[in-house]
UniProtKB/TrEMBL annotation:
It comes from the Bacteria. This is Oxidoreductase. GO terms for molecular function: oxidoreductase activity. Residues 15-303 form the NADP-dependent oxidoreductase domain. It comes from Rhizocola hellebori. GO terms for cellular component: cytosol. PANTHER family: NAD(P)-LINKED OXIDOREDUCTASE SUPERFAMILY PROTEIN, NADH-SPECIFIC METHYLGLYOXAL REDUCTASE-RELATED. Keywords: Oxidoreductase.
Length: 331
């Protein structure tokens, strides 16, 4: 396992992030605590140190299980959790990115995780109703109090993240060091605005659903799986299945698994760390094998061609008009 610094900080994180969304059996198919322990131990044995959860995963069980599993070795891990999603649907202030929910969510997560600080605290989803100034100042106060070390943002538009970090720079607040977005061969939307913005600001990107909800593992091509995920076979279109078939073909040529090819593709984008989630140790070990996979350029082109992805406007328009705009200076 290799390590990289998290954004423009000195915090060192492993190249694969362990997603703890599967920790717990509440609310659907997940992993019981003993299997979670084996998953966590196998990840640590491989050199992994970055674990990602959220206040709402498995109704809070994910944080509670993670807190139990890391007892006695918590300082060896970079623990990340998120807030935004409501703690109580009946409470009008139970969710959102405002200061009140941040404070109460943070205290809840600290208690569940059995720790006095969160290494990386994520804003889970953009809240259109809370001024970004309030959120950034509240996060900075949490950092000043020593309860949070670094902050990041998930599932938000590029313009908002850019504005937030500009405000932080101007006012001396703690800026976002990381960005969390969905990114896979099935969903390349982040390439349009979010990944270029992250590169410009030096943000580390953690990619959720790098297997496209499990589609890129190939299990849906083989028929309806016994362990249903949040995606049903009926909701997966032929484009997705076609991409999965090409991933399987490339995997066969390289002598690796489809999941390793899909994760390898996500990893080859600089500054992007895939979040690997697993319900069994075997799934985890298969995913960890992606670190040994190198995709030749011609296979990368083959994989990307099958997605039919386009950057769209304005990126395509700017590229097309570059010779017209710059003349002899166009490269």
């Amino acid at each position: 396992m290799r390590y990289t610094t998290f954004g423009r900080t000195g915090l060192r994180v492993s190249e694969l992030v362990l997603g703890a969304m599967t920790f717990g059996e509440q609310g659907g198919v997940g992993a019981p605590i003993e299997e979670c322990r084996r998953i966590c131990d196998a990840y640590a044995a491989a050199g992994g140190n970055f674990v990602d959860t959220a206040i709402n995963y498995r109704g809070g069980a994910s944080e509670e299980i993670l807190g139990e599993l890391l007892a006695g070795r918590r300082d060896r891990f970079v623990v990340a959790t998120k807030y935004t999603v409501t703690r109580d649907p009946a409470d009008p202030n139970g969710g959102g990115n405002h200061r009140k929910n941040l404070r109460l969510s943070l205290e809840t997560s600290l208690r569940r995780l059995r720790t006095d600080h969160i290494d990386v605290y994520w804003v889970h989803i953009w809240d259109r109703h809370t001024p970004i100034e309030e959120t950034m100042r509240a996060l900075d106060d949490a950092v000043t109090a020593g309860k949070v070390l670094y902050v990041g943002v998930s599932d938000a538009p590029a313009w908002m993240v850019s504005r937030a970090n500009t405000l932080a720079e101007w006012r001396g607040w703690t800026p976002f060091a990381g960005l969390q977005v969905p990114y896979s061969l099935i969903n390349r939307d982040a390439e349009r605005e979010l990944l270029p913005m992250a590169e410009a600001y030096g943000l580390t990107v953690t990619a959720w659903s790098p297997l496209g909800g499990g589609v890129l593992s190939g299990k849906y091509n083989a028929g309806q799986p016994e362990d249903r995920t949040r995606l049903s076979r009926d909701s997966i279109n032929e484009r997705d299945l076609g991409i999965a078939r090409v991933v399987h073909e490339v995997a066969s040529e390289l002598g690796v698994t489809p999941a390793q090819v899909a994760l390898g593709w996500t990893r080859q984008r600089g500054g992007v760390l895939p979040i690997i989630g697993a319900r069994t140790v075997d799934q985890l070990l298969d995913n960890l094998g992606c670190t040994a996979v190198t995709l030749p350029p011609e296979l990368v082109v083959r994989l990307e061609t099958t997605t039919g992805f386009s950057l769209g406007f304005p990126a395509d328009f700017i590229a097309q008009t570059t010779p017209w705009v710059l003349g002899a200076a166009a490269l």
